[in-house]
Each structure stands twice: as C-alpha cells, then as structure tokens.
Amino acid sequence: MIAAMSDVQAQEVLTARELQIAVLVAQGIDKKAIGRRLQISSLTVSEHLRRTYAKLGISTRSALAARIAGTVALHRRPADPALVQ
Fold it and tell me: Helix crossing, 16-26 with 42-56: angle to 10°?
C-alpha cells in the first residue's frame, strides 16, 4: 500500500538541498537571499521549490512552511542538558 503524501515526512521525499531550501522559505527568507546564502542563483532556488511543491502536493510558501514544521523540529539540536534547569 502506498502511503498518502500527507502521511510521509518531508525528509523522506525531498533531497537534502530541497529540504534545506524549504526550511529557509519557512523562515520567511526570499529566493534571492536564499540564493546568496547558498551560493546558487535565484532561478535554481525557484527550480528546487517547483520540484518541492510538486512532491508535496502544495502550491504556496505558507503551505510549505506548515508542511515542514514538524520536520524542522526534528532537525533542531536538543537543548544542552547543562543549561536546562
């Protein structure tokens, strides 16, 4: 049985670069700034986003941010236990 796209985590279907760009988009960074940060053109960023949207079955930046919200949480470093009281 094939899992519904909503049941699949973004990191399971996106390339590392697509996920990296998706996280930056979710942070509200525009395509030109993402391109500068990653040293790629904004057209390349657009192409990665086009493929990302198709893979996830979405069409907007806000839908992308909502879709990867759980994925971003999975990739955050845990708090340093020495700093947690």
Answer: 100
**pTM for the full predicted model:** 0.72
The predicted structure's pLDDT at residue 15: 93
As a whole number of angstroms, the distance between CA 83 and CA 39 comes to 35
Three-state SS for 24? helix
- Cβ within 8 Å of residue 19, ≥6 positions away: 10, 11, 68, 71
Instruction: Find the helix or strand (DSSP H, E) in which 10 lies.
Output: helix 10-13
Let me know if domain 9-75 sits in CATH 3.40.50.1000: no
Domain borders along the chain are: 9-75
